[in-house]
Every structure is written in structure tokens, then in C-alpha cells.
Amino acid sequence: MLNRFVPETVTPGRVSSSLRRLRRAVAPAALLLVALLVAGCGSSSSSSSSSAAKPLTKAQFLAQGNAICTQGNKNLEAPEKALGTSPTDAQFIAFIKGPFKSEIQRQIDAIRALSAPSADQATVKHVFDLAQSDLDRVTSDPKAVESSSVSPFKDFSTAAHAYGLTVCASESNG
After folding, report:
1. pTM, 2 dp
2. Phi, psi of 172, deg, nearest 5
3. Which of 155, 162, 66 is nearest to 114 (CA)?
4. 65: Cβ–Cβ under 8 A, 6 or more apart, which residues?
């Protein structure tokens, strides 16, 4: 999800490149979260006396999560394209604090809403606690993202990829 962004020294031409990498890293997570939210909310008419949804299998969870990440990439394409190839610092910051933050938060919330496999609930919680922490760090200081040599979502992507959310963490963590 978020490991695709590896910031470089900021120059006018590199800001757009950094945004593309950041979007590719984060958008899959957004998609995962949306799919998970939809899946988690879809069983409200269950005849079960419990208010919690039946836990998904790991395969179901991963399929829905990776689908959310796929859709998240698509959702960020238009806002990123609107930035053009050489956005100003103000435009970059507005993108990160606006559509980027909104979409990634939506994904995190959607995934958290899914009923993770019973045996994996602690792992899934940890993975998305990392995602939230990484998102909070990026949106609190977007300019630091540009000057860092390490993906700001490396913590999340390492854990997500290890769990099987490969679309959300589609690149090597090296």
C-alpha cells in the first residue's frame, strides 16, 4: 500500500514523481479499506443474535482487502492528475492533507470494519495501527515526506505484505 513512495530531493520535476509514488503506495490501502467496509457492513440483516459479523476467512479478508487497495489507486488518479507535473509546495501539501489523507483514512477505516479472521485479529489490528500512524505522520508534515529517503509507509507495508495484503504493499520492502 504505502511502501511505493520513496522520496527524493525535491525539485520541480520530482514533486510529481514523489506524488505518483506516494499515491501508488497508499491508494491500494484505500481500496482495501473501502472493500472491507462494504463487506463488513453488508451483513447487517443477519439473523444472528450477535451484533458482530461472522469472522471472514483469511482468504476472504485478503481478497476484500486487496480489492479495496485496487479501488483506492483508482480513486486517487484524478486528484493526482489535477496536480499536473510540477505542483507548487502549497498544491502538494493541499493534496496530501486533502484527497490523499481522506482516501487513505477511508481505506484504513474500511479494513478495520471488516471482521478479520479470529486467529488474526491482533495481527490485523497491529497492521492497521501502523497504517494509521504512518498516515498521521505523513499528513502532519507533508514536506518531510519529500526529503526522506525511506518510504513513510515502510512500517505498514512490511507488515501488510507479510500478512498477504500484497496489493496494499505491492513493492519490495528493501
Report:
1. 0.70
2. -60, 145
3. 66
4. 32, 33, 35, 36, 111, 114, 165, 167, 168
